[in-house]
Design goal:
Layout lengths: L3 H12 L8 H33 L8 H9 L3 H14 L3 H8 L5 H8 L7 H10 L2 H28 L10
Helix pairs in contact: 2-4, 3-4, 6-8
Length: 171
């Protein structure tokens, strides 16, 4: 771990025109990874709280949970909606949930997986996530995402066709 004091000393040295010593590179790299793990852990914690907050109806009096998040966290509605969808999906994806909780999966990867993963395919998807970046994973899963979207559209159309229709009979 790099202490705040050591980090501040490096900043002052570099801002004074000095070069950051090459031997600091390994320690700085390790610190960057450590910070990412801490940030991922905090985001997992936030998503878990968000899911439970929604269930507790703690947002009552607001138009939606997303609106509450917009105001309280200052995040755009789209970001709030995405976090809420990811938070909900973790409840039905125990392996992805466990990997994210343990810091083995970044939020970017969870976001790429959550809308195509099922309890039946999440192990295979987790293996893909292990070897791909978040952006690569998103691109890899785009065809599956599109196919699932088409399947949902077709299913909705079939259900609409089978709908019950009531006609008024005049006597």
């Amino acid at each position: 771990n790099i202490t705040w004091e050591a980090l501040q000393a490096l900043v002052e040295h570099s801002e004074g025109g000095g070069a950051v010593p090459p031997e600091a590179g390994d320690a700085l790299g390790d610190e960057i990874v450590r910070c990412e793990v801490l940030q991922s852990g905090a985001l997992y914690h936030q998503l878990l709280c968000l899911r439970l907050f929604e269930l507790s109806e703690g947002w009552e009096g607001w138009r939606s949970v997303e609106t509450w998040l917009e105001v309280k966290l200052g995040v755009p509605y789209k970001t709030a909606n995405e976090r809420l969808r990811v938070a909900r999906s973790l409840a039905r994806l125990p392996k992805i949930d466990a990997a994210f909780r343990a810091g083995r999966l970044s939020y970017t990867k969870v976001r790429a997986l959550h809308d195509v993963a099922t309890p039946e395919n999440e192990e295979i998807l987790l293996e893909q996530a292990r070897w791909a970046s978040g952006a690569q994973l998103h691109r890899l899963l785009a065809p599956l995402r599109a196919a699932l979207k088409r399947a949902k559209s077709c299913q909705a159309a079939r259900e609409a066709e089978r709908g019950v229709h009531f006609f008024e009979h005049s006597s």
